[in-house]
Amino acid sequence: MTRVLVTNVYSARNAGDAAIVLGMIDCLRRTPGFEDAEIALSSADHRGDAAAYPVPVEPSFHSLKDACRGGPRLRCLYFLKVLAPLSLLWAGAWRLARWDLPVPRGLRRLLRCYARSDLVIAAGGGYLYTTSRLHGNVMLLIHLHSFRLATLLGKPVYLWAQSIGPFAAGYQARMVRLALRAVRLVEVREDLSRDLVAGWELKVPVREAADAAFLLPAAEPDADLGLATRGDSPRVGMTVRRWFRDPAQQLDYQRTMAAFADRLVQEYNAEVVFVPQVTAVRQHDDDRRAAREVAGLMTRTDRARVIEDELSAPQVKWLCGRMDLFVGTRMHSNIFALSLGVPTLAISYQPKTDGIMAQLGLGAFVLPITGLSPGHLWQAFDHLRESAGEVREKLRRVIPEQTARAEVAGRLIADDFATPARERA
To answer: Based on the number of CB atoms within 10 Å of its own CB, is 272 exposed (0-12), middle (13-18) or buried (19 or more)?
Structure first.
Protein backbone atom coordinates (compact mmCIF):
# COMPACT_ATOMS: atom_id res chain seq x y z
CA MET A 1 0.00 0.00 0.00
CA THR A 2 1.31 3.44 -0.94
CA ARG A 3 1.67 5.89 1.94
CA VAL A 4 1.16 9.57 1.13
CA LEU A 5 2.01 12.41 3.50
CA VAL A 6 0.43 15.78 2.69
CA THR A 7 2.37 18.63 4.32
CA ASN A 8 1.80 22.39 4.65
CA VAL A 9 -1.83 22.06 5.72
CA TYR A 10 -2.97 25.20 7.55
CA SER A 11 -6.32 24.65 9.29
CA ALA A 12 -9.79 23.35 8.44
CA ARG A 13 -11.06 26.54 10.09
CA ASN A 14 -9.97 28.20 6.87
CA ALA A 15 -12.63 26.87 4.50
CA GLY A 16 -10.37 27.62 1.54
CA ASP A 17 -7.55 25.52 2.95
CA ALA A 18 -10.02 22.76 3.86
CA ALA A 19 -11.51 22.84 0.36
CA ILE A 20 -8.06 22.30 -1.12
CA VAL A 21 -7.27 19.42 1.22
CA LEU A 22 -10.65 17.71 0.77
CA GLY A 23 -10.36 18.19 -2.98
CA MET A 24 -6.88 16.66 -2.94
CA ILE A 25 -8.01 13.63 -0.94
CA ASP A 26 -10.98 12.99 -3.25
CA CYS A 27 -8.82 13.49 -6.33
CA LEU A 28 -6.19 11.04 -5.08
CA ARG A 29 -8.89 8.47 -4.28
CA ARG A 30 -10.02 8.66 -7.92
CA THR A 31 -6.50 8.52 -9.36
CA PRO A 32 -5.30 5.13 -10.64
CA GLY A 33 -2.43 4.02 -8.44
CA PHE A 34 -3.61 5.94 -5.38
CA GLU A 35 -7.14 4.52 -4.93
CA ASP A 36 -6.12 2.54 -1.84
CA ALA A 37 -3.33 4.84 -0.68
CA GLU A 38 -2.89 5.50 3.02
CA ILE A 39 -3.08 9.30 3.28
CA ALA A 40 -1.99 11.37 6.29
CA LEU A 41 -1.93 15.13 6.78
CA SER A 42 0.62 17.28 8.59
CA SER A 43 -1.35 20.28 9.86
CA ALA A 44 -0.65 23.52 11.70
CA ASP A 45 -3.89 22.90 13.60
CA HIS A 46 -3.58 19.13 14.00
CA ARG A 47 -5.74 18.86 17.11
CA GLY A 48 -8.59 20.88 15.64
CA ASP A 49 -8.27 19.22 12.23
CA ALA A 50 -8.44 15.66 13.55
CA ALA A 51 -12.24 15.67 13.40
CA ALA A 52 -12.46 17.64 10.14
CA TYR A 53 -10.78 15.23 7.73
CA PRO A 54 -11.39 11.56 6.83
CA VAL A 55 -7.68 10.69 7.21
CA PRO A 56 -5.17 10.77 10.09
CA VAL A 57 -3.83 14.22 11.01
CA GLU A 58 -0.30 14.64 12.38
CA PRO A 59 1.48 17.70 13.82
CA SER A 60 3.43 20.04 11.59
CA PHE A 61 6.47 22.17 12.22
CA HIS A 62 4.10 25.13 12.58
CA SER A 63 2.06 23.45 15.32
CA LEU A 64 5.19 22.22 17.09
CA LYS A 65 6.63 25.73 17.01
CA ASP A 66 3.41 27.22 18.36
CA ALA A 67 3.38 24.69 21.22
CA CYS A 68 6.42 26.48 22.66
CA ARG A 69 5.43 28.77 25.49
CA GLY A 70 6.37 32.39 25.00
CA GLY A 71 5.96 35.15 22.48
CA PRO A 72 6.35 35.02 18.68
CA ARG A 73 10.10 35.64 18.79
CA LEU A 74 10.72 32.84 21.25
CA ARG A 75 8.62 30.45 19.14
CA CYS A 76 10.58 31.39 16.03
CA LEU A 77 13.84 30.79 17.88
CA TYR A 78 12.50 27.43 19.03
CA PHE A 79 12.03 26.40 15.42
CA LEU A 80 15.42 27.75 14.30
CA LYS A 81 17.46 26.49 17.26
CA VAL A 82 15.63 23.28 18.22
CA LEU A 83 13.09 21.88 15.75
CA ALA A 84 15.02 22.47 12.52
CA PRO A 85 18.44 21.23 13.75
CA LEU A 86 17.01 18.20 15.55
CA SER A 87 14.88 17.20 12.54
CA LEU A 88 17.89 17.46 10.23
CA LEU A 89 20.02 15.42 12.64
CA TRP A 90 17.26 12.81 12.93
CA ALA A 91 16.86 12.65 9.14
CA GLY A 92 20.59 12.12 8.67
CA ALA A 93 20.73 9.34 11.25
CA TRP A 94 17.66 7.64 9.79
CA ARG A 95 18.92 7.88 6.23
CA LEU A 96 22.35 6.49 7.09
CA ALA A 97 21.58 3.79 9.64
CA ARG A 98 17.83 3.78 10.40
CA TRP A 99 18.59 5.25 13.81
CA ASP A 100 15.53 6.68 15.55
CA LEU A 101 17.32 9.34 17.57
CA PRO A 102 15.62 10.57 20.77
CA VAL A 103 13.91 13.89 20.09
CA PRO A 104 10.84 15.57 21.70
CA ARG A 105 7.75 13.37 21.46
CA GLY A 106 5.73 15.56 19.08
CA LEU A 107 8.67 15.98 16.74
CA ARG A 108 9.38 12.24 16.77
CA ARG A 109 5.74 11.54 15.86
CA LEU A 110 6.03 13.83 12.85
CA LEU A 111 9.44 12.55 11.75
CA ARG A 112 8.31 8.94 11.93
CA CYS A 113 5.39 9.86 9.70
CA TYR A 114 7.85 11.28 7.17
CA ALA A 115 9.95 8.11 7.38
CA ARG A 116 6.92 5.82 6.82
CA SER A 117 5.71 7.71 3.78
CA ASP A 118 6.46 6.66 0.21
CA LEU A 119 5.94 10.16 -1.18
CA VAL A 120 5.29 13.63 0.19
CA ILE A 121 2.93 16.18 -1.36
CA ALA A 122 3.00 19.84 -0.34
CA ALA A 123 -0.65 20.89 -0.16
CA GLY A 124 -1.91 23.23 -2.82
CA GLY A 125 -2.27 26.89 -1.96
CA GLY A 126 -0.49 30.22 -1.95
CA TYR A 127 1.94 30.21 0.96
CA LEU A 128 5.28 30.51 -0.89
CA TYR A 129 5.46 34.32 -0.94
CA THR A 130 6.60 37.26 1.21
CA THR A 131 5.39 40.83 1.70
CA SER A 132 8.40 42.13 3.60
CA ARG A 133 12.18 41.76 3.47
CA LEU A 134 12.15 40.95 7.21
CA HIS A 135 8.69 39.88 8.40
CA GLY A 136 7.73 36.33 7.58
CA ASN A 137 11.19 34.91 6.87
CA VAL A 138 10.82 32.23 9.54
CA MET A 139 7.35 31.36 8.25
CA LEU A 140 8.78 30.92 4.76
CA LEU A 141 11.59 28.75 6.14
CA ILE A 142 9.06 26.53 7.93
CA HIS A 143 7.00 26.15 4.76
CA LEU A 144 10.10 25.10 2.83
CA HIS A 145 11.43 22.88 5.61
CA SER A 146 8.04 21.12 5.79
CA PHE A 147 8.62 19.44 2.44
CA ARG A 148 12.40 19.90 1.97
CA LEU A 149 13.00 17.50 4.87
CA ALA A 150 11.41 14.72 2.84
CA THR A 151 14.04 15.03 0.10
CA LEU A 152 16.74 14.57 2.75
CA LEU A 153 15.00 11.32 3.72
CA GLY A 154 15.05 10.19 0.11
CA LYS A 155 11.30 10.64 -0.43
CA PRO A 156 9.94 12.00 -3.72
CA VAL A 157 8.31 15.39 -3.18
CA TYR A 158 5.53 16.95 -5.23
CA LEU A 159 3.93 20.38 -5.03
CA TRP A 160 0.17 20.31 -5.67
CA ALA A 161 -1.27 23.30 -7.59
CA GLN A 162 0.52 26.33 -6.16
CA SER A 163 0.62 30.10 -6.44
CA ILE A 164 4.27 31.09 -6.01
CA GLY A 165 5.49 34.60 -5.25
CA PRO A 166 5.81 37.48 -5.18
CA PHE A 167 8.84 38.00 -2.96
CA ALA A 168 9.92 41.18 -1.25
CA ALA A 169 13.61 40.33 -1.51
CA GLY A 170 15.76 38.44 -3.99
CA TYR A 171 17.26 36.17 -1.33
CA GLN A 172 13.77 34.95 -0.42
CA ALA A 173 13.09 33.99 -4.03
CA ARG A 174 16.45 32.19 -4.14
CA MET A 175 15.54 30.20 -1.01
CA VAL A 176 12.35 28.98 -2.67
CA ARG A 177 14.11 28.28 -5.96
CA LEU A 178 16.75 26.17 -4.18
CA ALA A 179 14.07 24.14 -2.39
CA LEU A 180 12.07 23.57 -5.57
CA ARG A 181 15.10 22.32 -7.48
CA ALA A 182 15.12 19.26 -5.20
CA VAL A 183 11.49 18.19 -5.78
CA ARG A 184 10.15 15.88 -8.48
CA LEU A 185 7.29 17.99 -9.84
CA VAL A 186 5.94 21.51 -9.36
CA GLU A 187 2.31 22.21 -10.22
CA VAL A 188 1.23 25.84 -10.62
CA ARG A 189 -2.39 26.98 -10.61
CA GLU A 190 -2.16 30.19 -12.64
CA ASP A 191 -0.07 31.89 -15.31
CA LEU A 192 1.64 34.44 -13.05
CA SER A 193 3.28 31.64 -11.05
CA ARG A 194 4.12 29.70 -14.21
CA ASP A 195 5.89 32.72 -15.69
CA LEU A 196 7.83 33.37 -12.47
CA VAL A 197 8.99 29.77 -12.12
CA ALA A 198 9.86 29.53 -15.83
CA GLY A 199 12.53 32.17 -15.29
CA TRP A 200 14.14 30.11 -12.53
CA GLU A 201 15.22 27.26 -14.84
CA LEU A 202 14.49 24.67 -12.15
CA LYS A 203 15.30 21.64 -14.33
CA VAL A 204 12.31 19.85 -12.79
CA PRO A 205 8.93 19.48 -14.52
CA VAL A 206 6.53 22.39 -14.05
CA ARG A 207 2.91 21.64 -14.96
CA GLU A 208 -0.39 23.53 -14.70
CA ALA A 209 -3.36 22.34 -12.62
CA ALA A 210 -6.33 24.25 -11.26
CA ASP A 211 -7.08 24.81 -7.58
CA ALA A 212 -8.47 21.71 -5.86
CA ALA A 213 -11.31 23.78 -4.37
CA PHE A 214 -13.07 23.56 -7.74
CA LEU A 215 -13.62 19.87 -6.93
CA LEU A 216 -15.37 20.45 -3.60
CA PRO A 217 -19.11 19.63 -3.52
CA ALA A 218 -21.41 22.04 -1.69
CA ALA A 219 -23.46 20.91 1.33
CA GLU A 220 -26.39 22.71 2.94
CA PRO A 221 -25.91 23.45 6.67
CA ASP A 222 -28.26 21.86 9.17
CA ALA A 223 -28.61 25.13 11.06
CA ASP A 224 -30.90 27.98 10.00
CA LEU A 225 -28.53 30.80 9.03
CA GLY A 226 -31.22 33.46 9.36
CA LEU A 227 -31.16 34.62 5.75
CA ALA A 228 -34.04 36.81 4.62
CA THR A 229 -36.74 35.26 2.47
CA ARG A 230 -35.87 35.52 -1.21
CA GLY A 231 -37.85 38.24 -2.94
CA ASP A 232 -37.22 40.96 -5.50
CA SER A 233 -34.28 42.37 -3.51
CA PRO A 234 -30.85 40.97 -4.42
CA ARG A 235 -28.78 39.03 -1.92
CA VAL A 236 -25.13 40.12 -2.08
CA GLY A 237 -22.49 38.02 -0.35
CA MET A 238 -19.26 39.54 0.94
CA THR A 239 -16.06 38.37 2.56
CA VAL A 240 -13.88 40.81 4.47
CA ARG A 241 -10.70 40.15 6.36
CA ARG A 242 -7.92 41.68 8.44
CA TRP A 243 -5.04 42.23 6.05
CA PHE A 244 -3.13 45.44 6.70
CA ARG A 245 -0.56 45.69 9.47
CA ASP A 246 -1.18 49.44 9.60
CA PRO A 247 -4.38 50.04 11.63
CA ALA A 248 -5.17 53.18 9.61
CA GLN A 249 -5.04 51.27 6.33
CA GLN A 250 -7.19 48.50 7.78
CA LEU A 251 -9.76 51.03 8.98
CA ASP A 252 -9.84 52.72 5.55
CA TYR A 253 -10.52 49.35 3.91
CA GLN A 254 -13.29 48.54 6.39
CA ARG A 255 -14.90 51.97 5.96
CA THR A 256 -14.84 51.47 2.19
CA MET A 257 -16.57 48.10 2.50
CA ALA A 258 -19.16 49.55 4.91
CA ALA A 259 -19.92 52.50 2.62
CA PHE A 260 -20.26 50.11 -0.31
CA ALA A 261 -22.62 47.85 1.66
CA ASP A 262 -24.74 50.85 2.67
CA ARG A 263 -25.03 51.91 -0.96
CA LEU A 264 -26.13 48.38 -1.92
CA VAL A 265 -28.99 48.76 0.55
CA GLN A 266 -29.79 52.30 -0.54
CA GLU A 267 -29.78 51.63 -4.30
CA TYR A 268 -31.18 48.09 -4.44
CA ASN A 269 -32.55 47.34 -0.96
CA ALA A 270 -30.04 44.48 -1.02
CA GLU A 271 -29.56 41.95 1.76
CA VAL A 272 -25.83 42.03 2.52
CA VAL A 273 -24.51 38.73 3.89
CA PHE A 274 -21.03 38.61 5.42
CA VAL A 275 -19.68 35.08 4.86
CA PRO A 276 -16.97 33.79 7.26
CA GLN A 277 -14.46 31.84 5.19
CA VAL A 278 -11.91 31.75 8.02
CA THR A 279 -12.73 31.28 11.71
CA ALA A 280 -9.25 30.37 13.01
CA VAL A 281 -9.49 32.20 16.32
CA ARG A 282 -6.25 30.76 17.75
CA GLN A 283 -4.32 32.01 14.73
CA HIS A 284 -5.93 35.47 15.11
CA ASP A 285 -7.50 34.94 11.70
CA ASP A 286 -11.27 35.22 12.11
CA ASP A 287 -13.36 36.84 9.39
CA ARG A 288 -16.29 37.20 11.76
CA ARG A 289 -14.42 39.85 13.72
CA ALA A 290 -13.71 41.88 10.58
CA ALA A 291 -17.31 41.41 9.43
CA ARG A 292 -18.68 42.69 12.75
CA GLU A 293 -16.45 45.74 12.51
CA VAL A 294 -17.55 46.50 8.94
CA ALA A 295 -21.22 45.94 9.79
CA GLY A 296 -20.79 48.21 12.81
CA LEU A 297 -19.64 51.02 10.51
CA MET A 298 -22.77 50.70 8.36
CA THR A 299 -25.81 52.92 8.67
CA ARG A 300 -28.26 50.26 7.44
CA THR A 301 -27.33 47.47 9.81
CA ASP A 302 -30.89 46.16 9.53
CA ARG A 303 -30.07 44.82 6.05
CA ALA A 304 -26.71 43.31 7.04
CA ARG A 305 -26.31 39.72 8.24
CA VAL A 306 -23.04 38.52 9.78
CA ILE A 307 -22.95 34.73 9.72
CA GLU A 308 -21.54 33.69 13.09
CA ASP A 309 -21.90 29.92 12.63
CA GLU A 310 -18.80 27.72 12.39
CA LEU A 311 -19.37 26.20 8.95
CA SER A 312 -17.48 23.45 7.16
CA ALA A 313 -15.91 24.13 3.76
CA PRO A 314 -18.77 22.46 1.82
CA GLN A 315 -21.27 24.52 3.83
CA VAL A 316 -19.39 27.78 3.17
CA LYS A 317 -19.41 26.91 -0.52
CA TRP A 318 -23.17 26.25 -0.39
CA LEU A 319 -23.71 29.63 1.30
CA CYS A 320 -21.65 31.46 -1.33
CA GLY A 321 -23.74 29.77 -4.01
CA ARG A 322 -26.96 31.11 -2.46
CA MET A 323 -26.03 34.68 -3.36
CA ASP A 324 -27.21 36.63 -6.41
CA LEU A 325 -23.92 38.52 -6.61
CA PHE A 326 -20.70 38.23 -4.62
CA VAL A 327 -17.91 40.60 -3.59
CA GLY A 328 -15.05 38.69 -2.04
CA THR A 329 -11.77 39.64 -0.44
CA ARG A 330 -11.06 36.00 0.40
CA MET A 331 -9.97 34.28 -2.79
CA HIS A 332 -11.55 30.89 -2.09
CA SER A 333 -14.89 32.46 -1.26
CA ASN A 334 -14.73 33.81 -4.81
CA ILE A 335 -13.92 30.34 -6.15
CA PHE A 336 -16.87 28.92 -4.20
CA ALA A 337 -19.29 31.50 -5.59
CA LEU A 338 -17.97 31.29 -9.15
CA SER A 339 -18.04 27.48 -9.07
CA LEU A 340 -21.78 27.69 -8.42
CA GLY A 341 -22.43 30.25 -11.14
CA VAL A 342 -22.56 33.44 -9.03
CA PRO A 343 -21.14 36.57 -10.73
CA THR A 344 -18.30 37.76 -8.51
CA LEU A 345 -16.18 40.85 -8.00
CA ALA A 346 -12.81 39.94 -6.45
CA ILE A 347 -10.75 42.21 -4.21
CA SER A 348 -7.14 41.21 -4.70
CA TYR A 349 -4.73 41.22 -1.77
CA GLN A 350 -2.20 39.00 -3.59
CA PRO A 351 -1.45 38.30 -7.27
CA LYS A 352 -2.95 34.80 -6.94
CA THR A 353 -6.41 36.39 -7.06
CA ASP A 354 -5.61 38.26 -10.28
CA GLY A 355 -4.11 35.11 -11.77
CA ILE A 356 -7.06 32.84 -11.03
CA MET A 357 -9.64 35.41 -12.18
CA ALA A 358 -7.65 35.82 -15.40
CA GLN A 359 -7.70 32.02 -15.88
CA LEU A 360 -11.49 32.23 -15.81
CA GLY A 361 -11.57 35.09 -18.28
CA LEU A 362 -12.84 37.44 -15.56
CA GLY A 363 -9.83 39.72 -15.18
CA ALA A 364 -12.09 42.74 -15.66
CA PHE A 365 -13.75 42.00 -12.32
CA VAL A 366 -10.77 42.40 -9.98
CA LEU A 367 -9.80 45.40 -7.84
CA PRO A 368 -6.64 45.77 -5.71
CA ILE A 369 -7.21 46.04 -1.97
CA THR A 370 -4.54 48.74 -1.68
CA GLY A 371 -6.06 52.12 -2.44
CA LEU A 372 -9.57 50.69 -2.69
CA SER A 373 -12.18 53.47 -2.75
CA PRO A 374 -15.99 53.40 -2.50
CA GLY A 375 -16.27 55.00 -5.93
CA HIS A 376 -14.09 52.48 -7.73
CA LEU A 377 -15.74 49.62 -5.88
CA TRP A 378 -19.21 50.79 -6.82
CA GLN A 379 -18.25 51.37 -10.45
CA ALA A 380 -16.79 47.86 -10.72
CA PHE A 381 -19.82 46.32 -9.01
CA ASP A 382 -22.21 48.19 -11.30
CA HIS A 383 -20.31 46.79 -14.28
CA LEU A 384 -20.63 43.29 -12.79
CA ARG A 385 -24.36 43.74 -12.15
CA GLU A 386 -24.98 44.92 -15.71
CA SER A 387 -22.89 42.03 -17.10
CA ALA A 388 -24.36 39.39 -14.76
CA GLY A 389 -26.14 37.39 -17.46
CA GLU A 390 -23.05 37.34 -19.64
CA VAL A 391 -20.88 36.31 -16.69
CA ARG A 392 -23.21 33.45 -15.76
CA GLU A 393 -23.07 32.16 -19.31
CA LYS A 394 -19.27 32.33 -19.27
CA LEU A 395 -19.17 30.45 -15.97
CA ARG A 396 -21.30 27.66 -17.44
CA ARG A 397 -18.50 27.15 -19.97
CA VAL A 398 -15.34 27.71 -17.94
CA ILE A 399 -16.12 26.09 -14.58
CA PRO A 400 -16.27 22.55 -16.07
CA GLU A 401 -12.92 23.31 -17.72
CA GLN A 402 -11.43 24.36 -14.39
CA THR A 403 -12.81 21.23 -12.73
CA ALA A 404 -11.15 19.09 -15.37
CA ARG A 405 -7.87 21.01 -14.88
CA ALA A 406 -8.10 20.41 -11.13
CA GLU A 407 -8.50 16.64 -11.70
CA VAL A 408 -5.21 16.62 -13.63
CA ALA A 409 -3.18 17.31 -10.47
CA GLY A 410 -3.45 13.79 -9.06
CA ARG A 411 -2.72 12.10 -12.38
CA LEU A 412 0.44 14.15 -12.93
CA ILE A 413 1.82 13.02 -9.58
CA ALA A 414 0.74 9.39 -10.04
CA ASP A 415 2.34 9.20 -13.47
CA ASP A 416 5.66 10.59 -12.23
CA PHE A 417 5.64 8.43 -9.10
CA ALA A 418 5.09 5.30 -11.21
CA THR A 419 7.83 6.18 -13.69
CA PRO A 420 11.13 4.33 -13.07
CA ALA A 421 14.11 6.55 -12.31
CA ARG A 422 15.95 5.49 -15.46
CA GLU A 423 13.07 6.76 -17.61
CA ARG A 424 12.97 10.10 -15.83
CA ALA A 425 16.65 10.77 -16.36
So the answer is: buried
